[in-house]
Design brief:
Blueprint lengths: L1 H27 L22 E5 L13 E8 L4 E7 L3 H16 L2 E5 L8 E16 L4 E15 L2 E16 L3 H28 L2
Parallel strand pairs: 1-4, 1-5, 2-5
Antiparallel strand pairs: 2-3, 5-6, 6-7
Length: 207
């Protein structure tokens, strides 16, 4: 009888240890704490030529690899904040990269900068860049919602020709790839912005 009880106790504690290990392991990948994007151009604009400056404010340029930009929050299923979502690049740098990819594909020679040029070049000046990335994590699944807003001045031949603002939101719930889902939703939201913005901007810039 004592042997059976000892065997039962051993099995119980073994299962308890395994369960604790699974919880700890799953906790490490329940959500993404650091998010970046490998943006791929998706619009089909061709015929662009010449130099195009895409400008962001100096305050939005990352000066050190140690800097982390907070993009949003991580919440549990009771809507309590448990963590932050950060990125090695600022919101303006992320949007600048997406625009650069699209316009290089269209045929432009893209120059990224933090100051408007003084000559007659074509310029997209990102005056407002916001990325809000929220993750809601529980043991069953994770929901990611991303909102991107981009405000910009369009300058041609030294003259402001238009002031524009674009906004898009994407959301997805999944039970796997929890550490990659935030990057995927951010990428989808950026592509939604670009699909709206790039054709209109291309017409203004003369393609």
């Amino acid at each position: 009888m004592k042997s059976v009880r000892n065997r039962f106790t051993h099995v119980f504690f073994t299962l308890l240890a395994m369960l604790a290990g699974m919880v700890i392991f799953s906790g490490c990948t329940r959500y993404a704490r650091n998010v970046d994007t490998l943006y791929e151009a998706t619009t089909f604009i061709h015929g662009g030529s010449g130099e195009l400056y895409i400008v962001i404010p100096p305050s939005q340029q990352t000066q050190s690899p140690d800097i982390k930009w907070v993009l949003g929050k991580v919440k549990d299923d009771e809507n309590k904040q448990i963590d932050e979502v950060s990125s090695p690049r600022s919101p303006a740098e992320i949007i600048q990269t997406a625009l650069s990819s699209e316009f290089r594909k269209a045929g432009y020679t893209v120059i990224t900068a933090t100051q408007r040029p003084t000559g007659g070049q074509a310029v997209i000046d990102l005056t407002r860049s916001e990325i809000n990335l929220e993750q809601i994590s529980d043991l069953a699944d994770i929901k990611v919602t991303c909102r991107v807003l981009a405000g910009m001045d369009i300058v041609k031949n030294g003259q402001l020709i238009k002031r524009l603002q674009y906004e898009a939101t994407s959301s997805k719930t999944d039970i796997k790839d929890r550490d990659l889902l935030a990057r995927s939703v951010l990428n989808d939201t950026l592509q939604s912005i670009m699909q709206k913005a790039v054709p209109e901007l291309s017409k203004m810039l003369g393609t």
